[in-house]
Write a structure and sequence with these properties.
Layout (H helix, E strand, L loop, with lengths): L4 E2 L2 E2 H17 L11 E9 L3 E6 L5 E8 L5 E7 L10 E2 L3 E2 L15 E6 L5 E8 L5 E8 L13 E10 L7 E6 L6 E12 L3 E10 L7 E5 L2 E2 L10 E7 L6 E14 L10 E4 L7 E2 L5 E5 L10 E10 L1
Parallel strand pairs: 14-19
Antiparallel strand pairs: 1-2, 3-11, 4-10, 5-9, 5-11, 6-7, 6-10, 8-9, 12-17, 12-23, 13-18, 13-22, 14-20, 14-21, 14-23, 15-19, 15-22, 16-18
């Protein structure tokens, strides 16, 4: 670089100091020692049977797949889809590259534990498809980055779901009559519950929101359809149920909310039912981290009035 002396200043030195900062500013990278790490796509998930395990990609061009444990007879492929919505996904087998000294070249399937790298450029979803597993289990994790350039640490992508039931009549001495049960590899956060009711005569009843550390069993239940609020999100991992006969309840962690619901007669037009409402700003709500974790709406052991029929909606976030 030529040095130009103007007013006693060496512009070359000034430009040498200035230009790198200008280039970094224009590149969009934050300064002041920002930390860049791979994005966690799928936390540790136990694989003990054949089937698929899926993760969503967002600006991710390279995925690392780690398998640990002691699986026997394992055969798995890695597949990608350019679509996110389950109804439109078409899966394509991807090339798999073992990572490590002496690990060998690319292959089409995984038959042993280890660390594997997959190029996912252009894909919106990735899944591990286990077609054979004789015995034992493996623990699967997935992390990703934007190819050769590390990405800025940021919160994992979240998906929001809602499930509703209409005209639900809980059993006498009601215990749990709505439940949301967790799933392996997901963190499920309850954000909102709303119930209104009608009855033969106007009445007020107790409503509790509770957490359990073991799943319920028995009772008479029906599945509540979990609806993704974003059409691009995959099907919900959590399971929502409504009960008309009390289940055998799991181990109680505690009551996380308690209120009352006031029902009105169906023919009444001058009165509005007083709803039972629980609401928590994300991510402060009750969190389910395992397949045995349960969030429930509970009657506190009381019997609701004659003709009681509730409309309830539960909303949650999955990470």
């Amino acid at each position: 670089m030529k040095m130009l002396r103007v007013g006693g200043l060496l512009l070359a030195a000034a430009l040498a100091a200035y230009l790198p900062d200008l280039a970094r500013a224009q590149s969009g990278y934050p300064q002041n020692g920002a930390t860049y790490t791979p994005t966690m796509l799928l936390p540790a998930t136990t694989i003990s049977a054949t089937g698929t395990t899926e993760a969503i990609l967002q600006n991710i061009n390279s995925v690392n797949i780690r398998l640990t444990g002691s699986p026997s007879g394992l055969v798995a492929t890695v597949e990608g889809a350019v679509e996110r919505a389950p109804a439109t996904q078409t899966w394509t087998a991807l090339s798999i590259r073992p990572v490590g000294i002496g690990a060998g070249g690319s292959r089409s399937s995984i038959t042993a534990t280890g660390l594997y790298a997959v190029d996912t450029t252009g894909f919106a979803s990735i899944r591990l498809n286990v077609s054979a597993l004789s015995s034992g289990s493996a623990v699967l994790t997935m992390s990703g980055s934007a190819g050769d350039r590390a990405v800025l640490t940021r919160p994992a992508r979240t998906a929001v779901y809602t499930a509703s039931v209409a005209a639900l009549s809980p059993a006498a001495s009601a215990t749990d009559y709505i439940t949301v049960t967790g799933a392996v590899g997901k963190v499920i956060t309850i954000t909102d519950v709303r119930c209104t009711a009608i009855s033969t005569a106007a009445a007020t009843g107790r409503v509790d929101a509770v957490k359990r550390s073991t799943a319920n069993s028995g009772g008479t239940s029906a599945a509540m359809t979990a609806v993704p609020l974003d059409a691009n999100d995959i099907a919900a991992a959590a399971t929502a149920l409504s009960y008309t006969a009390n289940p055998t309840t799991g181990t109680l962690v505690g009551i996380v909310g308690s209120t009352h619901i006031t029902s009105v007669t169906a023919a009444t037009t001058a009165l509005t039912p007083l709803p039972a409402t629980f609401s928590w700003p994300f991510p402060t709500g009750p969190r389910l981290r395992a397949a045995t974790d349960v969030f429930a709406i509970n009657g506190g052991g009381a019997s609701y009035t004659s003709g009681f029929a509730a409309n309830c909606t539960v909303t949650w976030v999955e990470e």
